[in-house]
Amino acid sequence: MSKSEIVFGLHSVQALLKSAPQRVLQLYCLQGRGDQRLQKILKLAEAQGVSVQPMGRGKLDALAEGENHQGIVANCRPGQVHDEGFLFQRLSELDHPPLLLVLDGVTDPHNLGACMRTAEAAGVDAVIAPKDKSAGLNPVARKVACGAAEVLPFVPVTNLARTLKKLQESGIWLVGAAGEASASVYQSDLKGPIALIMGAEGEGLRRLTRETCDFLINIPMAGTVSSLNVSVATGVCLFEAVRQRAR
């Protein structure tokens, strides 16, 4: 399986079977499990001509490397790897103001998956992240994303600062989330073409990224907690943009 990928979890496998069934080489399900949620996926696999093999929990656990697989694991051909060229081609084809999410050094795959799930729900056009010192779309991130990773383009880039400059040159405003910003997310205009930039867990935006932003926004905090988890903060900011764009 060295040249393949593992995808697990009910939502992730279902999304994969719907969006790219040709990628699935083999589907493994927990032997003896017969609940409706799993049966729905097995029927979908059958309709798509995907082979299903029952397997004991121990072997499934090994395939998922101990993560919660929910009784379903898919062995797949690697998905399409998106690059900067793909990103700008996609932007040129949009018929609405772009809404992008940039993750500046988010290293926890659980947070990446949660951000992907939120971004897809908010209608984000692509998620961008540095190739190095950042979480990639591994099986854990895909599972937490609940299917979003199978449909929302994830674009790892070699030089994030260069990509951000190119986005600016193409007319996209760079909006960075930072606790010390003077303007709140609710006071800021997020209706146009924007890339929302979220910093790493604990460290926030890197200096060069912060200096590249067109403006910074904060999330007003009413309690004693000084910050939010990056995936929660991403949801607050993205859905404020969604609210403004719906007016």
TrEMBL record:
> Keyword set for this entry?
Cytoplasm, Methyltransferase, rRNA processing, S-adenosyl-L-methionine, Transferase
Q: Where does S-adenosyl-L-methionine bind?
A: 199, 219, 228
The UniProt entry, under HAMAP family, shows:
23SrRNA_methyltr_B
UniProt lists the gene as rlmB
The cross-references to SUPFAM superfamilies, in alphabetical order and at most eight, read:
alpha/beta knot, L30e-like
* Residues that span the membrane, as ranges: none
Task: Give Gene Ontology CC terms.
Answer: cytosol
* Alphabetized Pfam families for the sequence: SpoU_methylase, SpoU_sub_bind
Q: Which family does it belong to?
A: Belongs to the class IV-like SAM-binding methyltransferase superfamily. RNA methyltransferase TrmH family. RlmB subfamily.
Query: Can you name this protein?
Result: 23S rRNA (guanosine-2'-O-)-methyltransferase RlmB
Q: Where is the RNA 2-O ribose methyltransferase substrate binding domain?
A: 6-82
Which species?
A: Marinimicrobium koreense
Described function: Specifically methylates the ribose of guanosine 2251 in 23S rRNA.
